[in-house]
């Protein structure tokens, strides 16, 4: 029974099968997809179901080229429409025979629709294509931009709508596909994907991959470099360059414990393997939850496991995001709000409620800052967004993450943790390997939690209104109160007692630094820097918030200006980079910002580059 249920869920979008209802083969196998504004695809007419990818990765020309072959389903359609951006389309085939194709008009955000002629009986299409130097998903790195500085590196980043820039595809999160891939790379490098992966290099540089569970296109991912694997447990492990692999293995040694904690909360891990690859520092995010292989920034390697909540976050996406996915980018909060909630529950299970509440409070502070930044666009502080004619990347901020989390935490405190956990576990199981809209979730919430328990909750205010409702959960931390008191004591007494900060966590240090008063003097900052050497901190989160304060308060001691420039040139994580450039701009130091950005821009992925270009109004 369990195997049949899983099989039905895997094929839910195709067969609409029920546990106790046999399939009626006379019914259409085309599901009803919702309208969405970020894809040209018309999946209710013709839709891709499986991809066979055969590509060559050429580091000399910085081009990926080959074929994308799709098994399709169509409802008496005469064409199928794929999304493309900055691709060269060389040829199209339908069931092995050449067929007509046409690229539509180019849109700066969406790229171009690729119209491929098919018949009502067409089962397969094949696209011959190659990428260009404008392809946004790819970042080609020289040896000098890597940790070991001996071999080049390539990685992709598909979220939100960038997969179309390295594969012609129906690039909508509600379209789930399985895939196989054959990837040819230089023989001294290894290729890994969001799929079943090799553990050692091949002799010929040819790698084959299989992803048997259906995933959304933004989760298609590839990395190529001189990388090595080290297992943590039978189902977890790390990939990294040689000089980083042992550091990553130590930092992420709790991965198996995290998986167990997650399963204890919300059910079986359905992706077989959970590995992490540590990428070069230009990777634009903290992590990306590509199934079976999370992509991670090296900025989380602090040497003391203090930043590993990021790994808990990406693991949580294996349920919220990868297993149950937002149907459109307007529903993005369903991915991230749930994942932050799940992440914090994992951290609480492993490290205690104090640590979990500190992480949650830092997110609450981020949310307050985000809401203030949208003072002139209050509609952007709603959970359910309308991103028509906007880049979906514009909705990937603290509103989705931290307001979404606060909504779920408030629900938990309202109904009780035991009932809420049972509800979430059933939600993931019921909707496994499918996509949901905000309205789908609201219906499920009312039917399965609120109405059976006669609970009245202001769902509409939380989801469809701006700001944060008054009935929000209040998060407190005694450790943060202590950090604030310690800061006040240090400033009042004009002296620093380092014994009072012994065994502080990263979160306590971040809160300490973030709470510097506007009136703090350079003498105080210098005193703190001398005592704790913040300017040279090896912890990237501590360094980032310290550099922000240095910019805010015109602190120039301990060579901090050069360290800030080095940090911004080396690190491409968008959150860190945008925080510091925003501080320069806020403090009328735009010339300083531009001077650094002209040096650092070439090291950034297009995702980070776009954000900073817009922020600084930069023109190349």
List the helices and strands and how they pair.
Blueprint: H1 2-10, H2 12-15, E1 46-58, E2 63-74, E3 79-84, E4 87-94, E5 97-98, E6 101-103, E7 112-117, E8 124-131, E9 138-141, E10 153-156, E11 177-184, E12 190-193, E13 206-215, E14 222-225, E15 227-231, E16 236-241, H3 242-251, H4 255-266, E17 274-278, E18 287-288, E19 293-296, H5 309-316, E20 324-326, H6 333-351, H7 353-373, H8 398-415, H9 417-430, E21 434-436, H10 438-450, H11 459-464, H12 478-493, H13 506-514, H14 522-532, H15 540-552, H16 560-570, H17 574-586, H18 590-600, H19 606-616
Helix pairs in contact: 4-5, 4-6, 5-6, 6-7, 6-8, 7-8, 7-13, 8-9, 9-10, 12-13, 13-15, 15-17, 16-18, 17-19
Describe this protein with a few key phrases.
single chain; alpha+beta; Immunoglobulin-like; 4 domains; 7-stranded mixed beta sheet
Protein architecture, described:
With 620 residues, the protein is an alpha+beta fold. A seven-stranded mixed β-sheet has the order 5-4-8-2-1-11-13, with no helix packed on it. The chain has a five-stranded mixed β-sheet with strand order 15-16-17-19-18. Strands 9-10-14-12 form a four-stranded antiparallel β-sheet, with no helix packed on it. Mean pLDDT is 94; it is low at 1-28. It contains 19 helices and 21 strands. It has four domains: 1-31, no CATH class; 41-224, tricorn interacting facor f3 domain (Immunoglobulin-like, Sandwich), CATH 2.60.40; 324-464, Neutral Protease Domain 2 (Neutral Protease, domain 2); 502-616, Peptidase M1, leukotriene A4 hydrolase/aminopeptidase C-terminal domain (Serine Threonine Protein Phosphatase 5, Tetratricopeptide repeat, Alpha Horseshoe). α6 (333-351) runs antiparallel to α7 (353-373), α8 packs across α9 (417-430) and α13 (506-514) runs parallel beside α15. Helices cover 37% and strands 19% of the residues.
């Amino acid at each position: 029974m369990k195997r049949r249920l899983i099989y039905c869920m895997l094929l839910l979008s195709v067969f609409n099968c029920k546990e106790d209802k046999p399939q009626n083969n006379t019914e259409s196998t085309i599901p009803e997809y919702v309208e969405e504004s970020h894809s040209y695809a018309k999946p209710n007419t013709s839709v891709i179901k499986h991809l066979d990818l055969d590509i060559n990765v050429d580091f000399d020309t910085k081009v990926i080229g080959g074929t994308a072959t799709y098994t399709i389903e169509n409802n008496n359609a005469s064409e199928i429409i794929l999304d493309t951006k900055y691709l060269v389309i060389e040829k199209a085939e339908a069931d092995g025979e050449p067929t007509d194709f046409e690229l539509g008009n180019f849109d700066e955000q969406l790229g171009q629709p690729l119209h491929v002629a098919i018949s009502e009986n067409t089962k397969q299409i094949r696209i011959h294509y190659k990428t260009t130097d404008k392809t946004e998903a790819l970042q080609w790195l020289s040896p000098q931009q890597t940790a070991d500085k001996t071999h080049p590196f390539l990685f992709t980043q598909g979220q939100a709508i960038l997969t179309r820039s390295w594969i012609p595809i129906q690039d909508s999160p509600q379209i789930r596909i399985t895939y196989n891939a054959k990837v040819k790379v230089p023989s001294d490098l290894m290729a890994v994907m969001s799929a079943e992966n090799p553990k050692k290099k091949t002799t010929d540089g040819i790698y084959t991959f299989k992803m048997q569970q259906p995933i959304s296109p933004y989760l298609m991912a590839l990395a190529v470099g001189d990388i090595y694997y080290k297992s943590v447990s039978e189902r977890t492990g790390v990939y990294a360059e040689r000089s980083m692999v042992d550091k990553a293995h130590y930092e992420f040694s709790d991965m198996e414990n995290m998986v167990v904690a997650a399963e204890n909360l919300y059910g079986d891990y359905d992706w077989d393997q959970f590995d992490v690859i540590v990428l070069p520092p230009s990777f634009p995010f903290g992590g990306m939850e590509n199934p079976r292989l999370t992509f991670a920034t090296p900025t989380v390697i602090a040497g003391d496991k203090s930043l590993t909540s990021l790994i808990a976050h990406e693991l949580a996406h294996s349920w919220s995001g990868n297993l149950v996915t937002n149907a459109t980018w307007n529903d993005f909060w369903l991915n991230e709000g749930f994942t932050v909630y799940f992440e914090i529950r994992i951290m609480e299970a492993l490290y205690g409620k104090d640590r979990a509440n500190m992480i949650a409070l830092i997110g609450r502070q981020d949310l307050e800052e985000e809401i203030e930044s949208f003072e002139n666009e209050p509609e952007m502080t709603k959970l359910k967004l309308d991103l028509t004619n906007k880049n979906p990347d514009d909705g990937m901020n603290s509103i989705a993450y931290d307001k979404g989390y606060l909504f779920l935490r408030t629900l938990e405190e309202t109904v009780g943790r035991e009932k809420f956990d049972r509800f979430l576990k059933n939600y993931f199981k019921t909707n496994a390997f499918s996509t949901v809209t905000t309205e789908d979730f609201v219906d499920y919430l009312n039917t399965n939690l609120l109405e059976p328990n006669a609970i009245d909750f202001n769902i509409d205010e939380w989801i469809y209104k701006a700001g944060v409702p008054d009935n929000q959960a209040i998060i407190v931390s005694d450790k943060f109160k202590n950090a604030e008191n310690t800061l006040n004591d240090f400033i009042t007494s004009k002296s620093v007692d380092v014994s009072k900060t012994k065994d502080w966590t990263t979160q306590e240090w971040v809160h300490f630094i973030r709470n510097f008063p506007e009136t703090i003097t350079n003498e105080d900052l210098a005193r703190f820097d001398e005592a704790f050497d913040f300017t040279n901190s090896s912890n990237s989160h501590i360094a980032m918030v310290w550099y922000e304060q240095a910019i805010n308060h015109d602190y120039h001691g301990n060579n901090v200006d050069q360290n800030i420039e080095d940090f911004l040139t080396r690190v491409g994580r968008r959150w860190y980079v945008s925080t510091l450039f925003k501080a320069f701009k806020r403090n009328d130091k735009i010339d300083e910002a531009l001077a650094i950005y002209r040096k650092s821009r070439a090291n950034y992925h297009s995702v980070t580059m776009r954000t900073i270009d817009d922020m600084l109004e930069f023109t190349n």
